[in-house]
Amino acid sequence: MEALSQSFNQTLESLTGHPTPAHILYANLDTSKLTYAEQLWVQWYQYWGNPVIATGVMSFLLHEIVYFGRSIPWMIIDAMPSMRKYKLQPNYVPTLADQWRCTRLVLLSHFTVELPQIWSFHPICEYFGMTTHEVPFPSWTKMVWQIALFFVFEDAFHYWAHRTMHFGPLYKHIHKLHHEYVAPFGLAAEYAHPLEVLVLGMGTIGGPFLLCAFTKDLHILTVYIWVILRLFQAVDAHSGYDFPISLHNWIPFWAGADHHDYHHMAFLGCYSTSFRWWDHFLGTDRGYQRVRAKQKAQKLRAEADELDKYAASLKIQRE
Ligand SMILES: [Zn+2]
Ligand SMILES: [Zn+2]
């Protein structure tokens, strides 16, 4: 049995190309100076032994837990009729069948297209000089500016890649699938052709690899925090809801669901992910501006009509 497990480990090591097990990587580590989170990090790598597997499993679990975990609150909100007044397209509410259909395709894509890539994630990170199993973690100030850079890079990459995908044959054969839902919902964020997931995923992971290639100063934990924020952004942008507390009502250049919901409704314009500046400066948000201005005017008119009716009823009561 032991011989079998040993040969399995050897096969894994030859496949992953990472022959250094965790107990050697941490051989001279003084854990007494580490924070609790850093100690947990070390324990995780020690538990799996092989760093490639440890990074792969963590990356995969992180994606699944955050993507589906973030979609659950939106499913609950969809089931609450009292929330309809915040829905951007209130006439379209996803059914359970829609949600199940999305879940199936997303899971299929995660287990077929993504899993093999995750296998090679650790070696690629090391190739670019990213720190992975290492502790201590970088300072939070460094993490903040690096993540801010990733947001700006991803937004620019996504704008151009997404806009290109609306070009005839690319739209017909690849991007059309993502546009199946005219009124999107949280789980539909990754409802897309595997090629699209691959290309647009480059915007998410390309920033960290580029920064790493130039500075050799990036920890994988920073990348994980960035990926979590990016997943939140993607699921929320597809939620179909705009609340008074929604981020774009506080940060005017944040795109949010209001921006991306229009893209699904109109098929054209509003191509970016996190920010509004590319669409604004290149004029691809003109249709969006027109539609939203019209909706605002209609709302104001309806409110004025209500007030008129109320004033008329008061007048009748007095007479
Ligand atoms: Zn599109
Ligand atoms: Zn979308």
Automatic annotation (TrEMBL):
Record-level GO BP terms: lipid biosynthetic process
Keywords recorded for this protein, A-Z: Coiled coil, Membrane, Monooxygenase, Oxidoreductase, Transmembrane, Transmembrane helix
Residue ranges annotated for the Fatty acid hydroxylase domain, each copy included: 148-284
Protein name in the entry: Methylsterol monooxygenase
This enzyme's EC code(s): 1.14.18.9
Enzyme kind, highest EC tier: oxidoreductase
Pfam families referenced in this protein's UniProt entry, alphabetically: FA_hydroxylase
Cell location: Membrane
Transport as UniProt keyword: no
Lineage: Eukaryota, Fungi, Dikarya, Basidiomycota, Ustilaginomycotina
Chief localization: membrane
Presence of keyword Transmembrane helix: yes
Coiled-coil spans in chain: 290-317
One Gene Ontology CC term in the entry: membrane
InterPro entries in alphabetical order: Fatty_acid_hydroxylase, Sterol_Desaturase_Related
MF annotations from Gene Ontology: C-4 methylsterol oxidase activity; iron ion binding
